[in-house]
Amino acid sequence: MTAVTISQPRYLPACNYIHRMALSDIFIYLDTVKYSPRDWENRNKIKLSSGKSAWMTVPVVHTHREQRIVDTMIHNEDKWALKHLHMITHSYCKAKYFQQYIDFFKDAYSRNWRYLADLDIYLVDFIVKTLGIDCTFVKASELDGCGRGQELLMDLCQKVGADIYISGPLGRQYIDRAGFESNHIKLFYHDYQHPVYPQMHGEFLSYMSVIDLLFNCGEESLEYLKQDNISKKEMEEAQ
């Protein structure tokens, strides 16, 4: 069976987003839809040394309401990269695995990024490879998908030969199961149980960027990510 997830590129996403990749054979970055201000495409949270959470936001050039994610450019006049690297360093410099991973982020934030999606995908690619997740990644902009909403999701699934479409839990509000099943694509709703893992700076905060897990848990991160959640094999057997 070929399990497929389709989702917008996200900036340093949380564990639930990465876990969907662990369940998928193919992950399609939905970069052809409208960019959403104040969403997850250009921001996420980390835990500060104070024990509180804080947003890290990549400033973008937003020119019109129908602007697509793939066309969204970063506003580089703002020194956001130095600020984000400083926030990460100050928050995690005493973490057990800080030295193991920080050089990647120093290099990533020293680069001249033009498009938001390129930055998002580059960072996630490192995280996925570091965790050892085996998944193929494709951009919707490379597949020339047709339609909008569910029609677009269906078309992209068919283009990559999906047998299972993995949806986030909110998909229950808008996805027509019969439409997918009539095209021989089974639906699986991803209800993620967030793990509690060793985390510095006081009371545990869930749904931080996955880099919080990585700096704190290193090689054990994938096991924590999967903890108390369905495996790919179990998902397939349930269909």
- Whole-number mean pLDDT: 95
Structural class: alpha/beta
Arrangement of strands in the largest sheet: 7-2-1-8-9
- Shape by Cα distribution: globular
Please give the radius of gyration in angstroms.
18 Å
Instruction: Write down how many β-strands occur, each being a DSSP E stretch of 2 or more residues.
Output: 9
Number of helices: 10
How many domains? The number is 1
The succession of helices and strands, N to C, reads EHEEEEEHHHEHHEHEHHH
Q: What is the helix content?
A: 25-40%
Unreliable stretches: none
Euclidean distance between termini CA atoms: 10 Å
Give a short account of the largest sheet.
Answer: 5 strands, parallel
Strand content: 5-15%
Q: In short, what is this structure?
A:
By secondary structure, the protein is α/β, with parallel strands linked by helices.
Describe the structure.
The chain has one domain. It contains ten helices and nine strands. It has helices spanning 15-23, 80-92, 98-110, 116-131, 140-143, 149-159, 177-181, 210-217, 221-226, 232-237, and strands spanning 3-7, 26-29, 43-47, 53-57, 60-61, 73-74, 136-139, 164-167, 186-189. The strands form three sheets. A five-stranded parallel beta sheet has the order 7-2-1-8-9, with helices on both faces. Strands 3-4 form a two-stranded antiparallel sheet. The chain has a two-stranded antiparallel ribbon with strand order 5-6. Helix 2 runs antiparallel to helix 3. The longest helix is centred in the middle third of the chain and has 16 residues, at 116-131. The protein is globular.
